[in-house]
Design a protein that fits this description.
14 strands, 41% helix, 365 residues, 13 helices, binds pyridoxal-5'-phosphate, three-stranded antiparallel β-sheet
């Protein structure tokens, strides 16, 4: 048996007629930039997230970048976030000349350790970027309470938490903005790069709309220097199809696969599971992780190891400060991501579980 990390071909084949029709429609009409599919996407997304505005952008990275920019983050400002994320979360802080202040995560769920926020705040701190990693949300009530009390902006990195809720409220709808990625391997992926920002602020929405399109307010009215970060109409068409015909089924199937893993891998000495109901990426902590990874590869099971060298160490010479983050560093040695996607079969999941048990020399049962 062979298990792919993501099975693109199979995913496409399930939606082929709808995606083909939507994409070819764009070709036939010549609808490429800022056209009807983008408008439809923005309207649907805002409604889905329960926010006033959603703005299509070319990536999740730009969603973060334009959020910080429009929130007024300036050179020398400090922004608190985590090192245990995808590097884009704090690369954008550097791009604005601001200072990333990286704090540690919790070993149980790999999320920002909220108890470490206040001690990281100085008079230069302007914002917090909580990262909802692997489809798990940071405690937004607590973070918003700290931010409101200390007068800080919150920009949510919800790139790995599309459609996830906390107390009936969607990830990305708590902060000043919420940032989303539709990179192919995310829960809903385009056929290339795509992203979006969500906000309830009229002012932020208006500014981001202009900045993503060269600072243009209308086609003939340029009022500031911006960038080109428009979402392609064709990518929006693909996302629109997937949101309508794939999202619900995909989440249900992912929950099922997550439950199969939780059941099959519990009680294995050598593994530590987060073990909750649903996650977007099935990440576990494993003893002899590198050996396990090689063993699974040998058995034709694709897995991923996220940054064996944590970013705050790998990029230490380009950061403004030295950070010691024991849990982040420990996780970088221990975590491995198993295939979790809607296309994987129960048999494949059981095969993976069997191989992992075999690796840790667990007898049948
Ligand atoms: C994917 C991702 C990003 C960046 O999104 P892109 O669309 O690839 O630019 C940022 N933060 C996190 C946590 C991500 O997973």
């Amino acid at each position: 048996m062979k298990v792919k990390f993501v099975n693109w071909g199979l995913q496409y084949s399930k939606l082929k007629s709808r995606i083909d029709k939507a994409v070819l429609g764009c070709f036939e009409r010549g609808d490429f930039i800022m056209r009807s599919e983008v408008e439809k996407f923005e309207k649907n997304l805002a409604e889905f997230l329960g926010v006033k505005y959603a703005i299509g952008l070319n990536s999740g990275t730009d969603a973060l970048y334009l959020s910080l920019w429009t929130a007024g983050i300036k050179p020398g400002d400090e922004v608190i976030t985590v090192s245990h994320t995808f590097v884009a979360t704090f690369a954008v802080i550097k791009q604005l000349g601001a200072i990333p202040v990286l704090i540690d995560v919790k070993a149980e769920n790999y999320l920002m350790d909220i108890d470490k926020i206040e001690e990281a705040i100085t008079e230069k701190t302007k914002a917090i970027i909580p990262v909802h990693l692997n489809g798990r949300m940071c405690d937004m009530e607590k973070i918003m309470e700290i931010a409101n009390r200390r007068n800080l902006i919150v920009i949510e990195d919800a790139c790995q938490a599309f459609s996830i809720k906390q107390n009936e409220k969607m990830a990305g709808s708590f902060g000043l903005t919420g940032c989303f990625s539709f990179y192919p391997s995310k829960l809903i992926g385009a056929c290339g790069d795509a992203g979006a920002v969500a906000t309830n602020s009229d002012e932020i929405a208006e500014k981001i709309r202009m900045l993503r399109d060269h600072g243009r307010k209308t086609k003939t009215e340029t009022i500031c220097f911006g960038v080109n970060s428009r979402l392609d109409n064709i990518q929006a068409a693909v996302i629109n199809v997937k949101m309508k015909y794939y999202l619900k089924k995909a989440v249900a199937r992912r929950m099922k696969v997550n439950a199969l893993y939780n059941e099959g891998l519990k009680n294995i000495v050598g593994l530590k599971l987060v073990g909750d109901d649903y996650c977007e990426n099935y990440v576990i902590r494993a003893e002899r992780r590198d050996e396990l990874s090689a063993y699974l590869t040998k058995n034709k099971i694709e897995t991923q190891i996220h940054e064996p060298m944590p970013y705050h160490l790998a990029l230490a010479n380009q950061l403004d400060r030295v950070f010691t983050l024991p849990i982040t560093e420990q996780l970088s040695r221990e975590i491995i991501t198993l295939p979790l996607n809607p296309e994987i079969t129960n048999e494949q999941v059981q095969y993976i579980i069997r191989k992992i048990k075999k690796f840790y020399k667990i007898k049948k049962g």
